Automatic annotation (TrEMBL):
Record key words, sorted: Membrane, Transmembrane, Transmembrane helix
Protein name from the UniProt record: Uncharacterized protein
Species this chain originates from: Halovenus aranensis
Domain of life, source organism: Archaea
Bilayer-crossing regions: 12-32, 44-62, 77-99
Keyword Transmembrane helix found: yes
Length: 105
């Protein structure tokens, strides 16, 4: 009997085997959590955008666990949803920095 060496990686779910599915999921959860614990309107709007992205990433992860599911584009959908949300967060950060710089200057 040959034992295979399995390497632990914090971004891998057991059975999924791809950090591509887990990373957008983590980003979406972080944005949703930030929106729940702050009272800033932009954080709440970003959290509202994070909910559909979270649904897509959850669906992609569940389909990744089911080898006979017939869905081959789950990782792509998860990357697109996480990428759109990340783009919105970066734009919010840039706009926030520009407003603070203009107010202080």
């Amino acid at each position: 009997m040959i034992l295979q060496h399995t390497q632990f990686h914090p971004l891998l779910l057991p059975g999924v085997g791809s950090p591509v599915l887990v990373l957008p999921f983590v980003i979406e959860l972080a944005v949703l959590t930030r929106g729940l614990y702050t009272r800033k309107s932009t954080d709440i709007v970003l959290a509202a955008v994070a909910v559909p992205c979270l649904v897509v990433s959850t669906w992609a992860t569940v389909e990744g666990l089911n080898p006979s599911g017939g869905v081959y584009w789950g990782e792509v959908f998860s990357i697109i949803a996480g990428g759109i949300l990340t783009l919105f967060v970066v734009i919010d950060c840039i706009i926030g920095s520009a407003v603070k710089a203009r107010a202080s200057g």
